[in-house]
Specification:
Elements lengths: L10 H21 L3 H6 L5 H29 L1
Length: about 80
Amino acid sequence: MTKKTIEFRDPVVEKVVDNFVKRSDVGFKKYGQTLHDERTSNVKGLFDYVNDVQEELMDAILYLQAVKDELKDIN
C-alpha cells in the first residue's frame, strides 16, 4: 500500500478524492483484490471493462432521472 500526503486547495476535490479511496476500499473488501491486481492477472478482459462502464453509465442515467423526479416533487 502506498501512503501519500496531499494538500487540497479545493474542498470539492478533496471530497471526490476521499470518495474514490472509500470506493476502492469497498471494492477491495468485496473482491479481495485491487483493480490493478484484477487487470494484471487477466481476471477481466477489455470487453468486460467496457461492459462494466456501460452498465454503470446506465445506472447513472437512472439515478439522474430519479433526482429530476425528486426535484419536481419538491417544487
